[in-house]
């Protein structure tokens, strides 16, 4: 048997059609994607490579020279308590802000869609925080959350609750920042969900009604949620990434304090690189930050993505 | 004609001052044109911008650098040494009120890297209404920390959401320095090789902080929160820079009787106070421009500059002539008693200490973090101080 | 179906209104502050309506202290350019990734993910050095170029395009459209909700961006709106709140107007009714 | 009391009046086929009955309940959509199970993860799966239960949509062309299943179809809609043999009924080319009428035989029959004749022949399109017109 | 050389082998109808020919060009999708105009605003509009040109899809059930339009349909596909009268052909219940065969007449004909008889009758499903089986 296969001449198989159209498709795809790819390389990849390189140096801002120090920065990172602390804080922040803003965003989008009056008003109201200029908003939040003269605590006092020291105490500062983070991102997610809702064929709701999905909740689970699958994956990914990248609020509101209670990754990196000027070390931090996240997000995306597309 | 590009931080604060100074300067020096680069929001970002731009064509000719960052800038050879210019100008320098004390503020290891432009020191603000209500005499403000604490406790006892004290410990080590230097202490040993702030002076300093919380019930405020509470009339004493004076006056308006006084010192005899503010620094390496830049630097830091800065901000005059001469600030202080506290403290001003080495800035943060542990009572003052000292020791350059 | 106020509907409206109130609270405070004199802003008692109207003064300050017109104009130019370029670059790429088979799709996906994660803070230094050596600082190019590629846009469009029925694209191919033609004539008209949503995000983000303009712009002729806000801030000494809020309102207002105009677009249902099955 | 009564339903889309007042009553267990030209509003009527679209006016009552004010989910109707409307994210099996799950499981039990932990749901789920499998088997899609709609052919999707509607026990069946994408055998088979189910369920059914064989063979009564009106609602035989309106006659029957416009002579007779027809009763002289006869009631004789001389234009082979297209020599009107293939032997295009109508099968319609009384049919067959 | 040649095309979806090697040749201007059970791969084949789907292997050559190497846009084929695939954002008119605009306007001229300023495009646009209107008129959708797909009924959408394909002058027409949602009259009308167009264009056409009347009447040849294979490709008459395979015989013809499984006796004759059939030629004794006869070649006689005794089970009225379902008394097999309504008078369910087949119409298929030689037909009609 083995001999026979060995001597038999290769049979001419009819040419697969696949290759041609696929090759063409691939070529076109390359062409369409090329500008984006070039720009990604130029404005994202190249700087990232530069950052990675810097991570192996002792470069400090202001000095024109630097030397390579190998993995020294990474070694230092291992024992850096601040880095660990900010890693933890970032995780906590993300664990609060991402789910809360996704759920609220979805809820608000659904509520607004099912309402007939004041849609424009509500959309705008929930969107406004997205458009807010944080430099100014920081002041406002400082005041609103002021432990003694702030309106929030005044209201709490009215109903007999003690007002916490929102931004001042190490115990609450992270939650306060999370709250502000949610405030900022709900509108963002709402818009995405609103856009996602438009892509759902009306026919499916008809079918659902006919099938006896009486309550809006039934229809939500039967049609809306699954059909929003891709949008939800997108929103989730973006929400997590944005939460992990929290920076501005921390910088303008608490500067990481008190005593590092609101120290988050990007703030730490910024602090190292631009305030302490140790760009090399900050770069190493950035690399670790990116490596962890890229792997995590890509895995998550591939895993979930397969499930939601039909 | 020479055009100078000038960069400065905190435009909300300095824009009017800069406009005024440069206008006058151009009137006096028609051959020099002043242009402003986009200002930076804070000192911190200002120096970042300069460091980034150092050596590029974008680098401005002059900038204003926070006094505590001069050392760092100098380590990176960013400022031009002013000694040669001063040597040429020796006579007129003294005449224009650049005293040695003042010059020292902008020296790093004896090198004149800039001229102090706007300087401040920490003072005590107080709400006379609250002091009165608590049984104190507003005309006789507390002179020692003990008195502050005692009166603070009484104010706190007034209730109704009123707090005793806001001590601006956040952000940097400036106010800690105020306590430390006020007790006669120093940050490091003379040769900068050992940590010295954990000595008895430092312990006293942290103890004050601790007692402010424990005995006077000082709350944990963020910087902005403290400021807002004070101007709302809900805080008895606020300890912070004179630089905030002008704005505080505006924010308080007629809501209550705002007063200022000298800050209590743990060592009333030898106590010193750190100097905040900034110095004008020449960056341009272009010799032709340098002369013009020097002219401008001298003008800005000179009496005219000071006479513009002081009323607009609350800073203390960085120029002796300006303080005394009727041509400049003259009777300003008589008319504005609130500004006097800072002025009276001028003789005690010493440079805001900048730590050596690449971790210099980070040391500041370490001190702030440990201060915060005291304020939120998560650590005993001795403990926090020791931790700070240990950490700072680690961060100092090993020699 | 009916417009009567049922219990559920009343509940829904209450919920929405309460939420809106919470979300608007900072703005309410802001508007109120923009009309207050400086000493009236922080008081122990909360009052939203200024006792004395300082709107005129504060807005006059906002317009007087900085050249607002120039700032807004720069903002429009920069945001407009950024948005147009982003869309032109991202849509074909997203289409290729969503609907065409090609080997690099996965690599591209990884790049996009990376791009999403990389904060501009981390790469600003290398980018700054690059722009400096190309002598491009202080120009619209410097403000626009780094954002010419939006991985967010690619990612967003990718999700939307995938949901589009293949048959539609097949029909277009048979009708003789090139792939680029399909993108322009079939994909884009049917992706308005996504494009509008992205437009909003892009414009908002770059209109409000403070970080990058601060780095590349030292010449005030190229300053964007948030840079103008700096003139009302004095971190060390306390801000001029009234004027700051007034200026913020002026800067935010165009965004709100744009949003109001745009929002119809992203909720306008494009139902795939050309199809069966 | 009728099981379903639709009263005076009207509907417009903007300027277009789609339904101009449709009224219809169905008995319990009655199967009504709804036919009419494309775009006449059949789907719209179904959607209104289902509660998916609001009518501009009119009432719908079923099983004694006034449905008009109820939302779709409460009307308890099953519907097959013309566009299938399958849930793209669910497999065929899950699609079919949806209505059962909605009815038999509580909303708690239906929750994604938690639901499957609750007590009692296991048995219900098993039961649902059994019903789904049974239904799928009867429509021959049991091998597809795990596929998603995107992986199925058009006909397969249609059967899933059908199964989803048939698996329930609704108060009313609405089917919008449920078999249009099926091949003939499958269609016959599915027809049988639908009729069976209908008989078992005993609920009124509205069935939209373009296939006349379907309409005529399945329905108890056929409703013919046209341009917004219900022209006739009657038993299939009546619709076919005794249409009340010329449009109904034209619409039903393949090939289309032959019609010749004419005018009543002074003596009440009708002249058709060279032939005169004498009706039983008198027609109003001078009135415009249309004479119509179905193609199967015409036969072809050799030239010269008594009848209408004509030429053959073309022939169409349809397997079990042949359609002969002819043109009458005298008046140039087309006449279509349906023959058994055996009878069509020897016929070729161009050949002159004689067309012989069965006189008692002639129908006469007035100028308004309405049928003139049945007793008007002609006894005097095909007398050669004098002169 | 043939105008279209498909050689050995195979295609699998995962484990499912959908096309198992389809080969087919079409002459220039030939109209080939593709029929087969739902899910047999018709749409898939069309999509492969169009270049929308890659085949696993095989070749496609059209007009001398090897299409295999070309992408869809270059193949110059027009296709009607089973799912319509209309552009949702364009009106009906714009939908139809797309292929013309693509061909006749340069890419500059097609640009939204600038395009309408360029010289020369005005005339072209007018011409396109004219063609669109003409085509729409011929499919009776000219009043819908300004509606978007969402505002049209199913049949209207289908006609727009058809118009979009027909308005071009492609090298190849592919139509996937283009008339399934149309009513009978419209369907006949559209059929005529398609045939006309096809004749004018003279390009090969592949036409998928479930409507046998369509397949048989329109096509030059009919291709019957089943479970991935092409069973027979022949002229309609051949497919109907002379099927090469039992499956083809079963698939084509309504009602379905009557089949009776049997075995050849030792003497080469075939016993059907109480009757023995004697073929012309000898059949292999002992082999399994299937005897088949179409329903129209059976007739019903009174009980006692020579033929197969049976009972009537039910009757189905189809307008011009009646389908009689019977069961043979002897072997319990079902037999379906198609009669003219006149011949069915007096028949009721349960009545015992005699079924009389036309012997020369009997077909015999072997165990492998293939037709046994034609000269096997029986001359000895229905001899009563002895004993
Ligand atoms: N993407 C897919 N994945 C898996 N199987 C598929 C896919 N697409 C089609 N099929 C299967 O391939 C077979 C052929 O599908 P195709 O659409 O060609 O059938 P068809 O002959 O057109 O049927 P119909 O007459 O019902 O339209 C079907 O059984 C279908 O289930
Ligand atoms: N949303 C709409 N806006 C405007 N006109 C519409 C809309 N929906 C349907 N129509 C029109 O209403 C008429 C009736 O549509 P409907 O779908 O009820 O027809 P139908 O009888 O089901 O036709 P078909 O047999 O082709 O499915 C059609 O002429 C259609 O164009
Ligand atoms: Mg319809
Ligand atoms: Mg198909």
Automatic annotation (TrEMBL), chain A:
Its main location: membrane. Belongs to the binding-protein-dependent transport system permease family. It is found in: Cell membrane. The chain crosses the membrane at residues 28-56, 91-112, 124-144, 173-200, 220-241, 275-299. InterPro entries: ABC_transporter_permease (IPR051393), MetI-like (IPR000515), MetI-like_sf (IPR035906). It is a multi-pass membrane protein. Keywords: Cell membrane, Membrane, Sugar transport, Transmembrane, Transmembrane helix, Transport. It comes from the Bacteria. Gene3D superfamilies: MetI-like. Residues 87-300 form the ABC transmembrane type-1 domain. This is Multiple sugar transport system permease protein.
Automatic annotation (TrEMBL), chain C:
The complex is composed of two ATP-binding proteins (UgpC), two transmembrane proteins (UgpA and UgpE) and a solute-binding protein (UgpB). Belongs to the binding-protein-dependent transport system permease family. It is a multi-pass membrane protein. It is found in: Cell inner membrane; Cell membrane. The chain crosses the membrane at residues 71-95, 107-131, 143-161, 182-207, 241-262. The gene is ugpE. CDD domains: TM_PBP2 (cd06261). PROSITE patterns: ABC_TM1 (PS50928). Residues 72-262 form the ABC transmembrane type-1 domain. This is sn-glycerol-3-phosphate transport system permease protein UgpE. It comes from the Bacteria. Part of the ABC transporter complex UgpBAEC involved in sn-glycerol-3-phosphate (G3P) import. Probably responsible for the translocation of the substrate across the membrane. Keywords: Cell inner membrane, Cell membrane, Membrane, Sugar transport, Transmembrane, Transmembrane helix, Transport. Pfam families: BPD_transp_1.
Automatic annotation (TrEMBL), chains D, E:
GO terms for molecular function: ATP binding. Keywords: ATP-binding, Cell inner membrane, Cell membrane, Membrane, Nucleotide-binding, Sugar transport, Transport. PROSITE patterns: ABC_TRANSPORTER_1, ABC_TRANSPORTER_2. It is a peripheral membrane protein. The keyword Ubl conjugation does not apply. SUPFAM superfamilies: MOP-like, P-loop containing nucleoside triphosphate hydrolases. The keyword Membrane applies. It is found in: Cell inner membrane. Pfam families: ABC_tran, TOBE_2. Residues 4-252 form the ABC transporter domain. Its main location: membrane. Belongs to the ABC transporter superfamily. This is Multiple sugar transport system ATP-binding protein. The lineage of its organism: Bacteria, Pseudomonadati, Pseudomonadota, Alphaproteobacteria, Hyphomicrobiales.
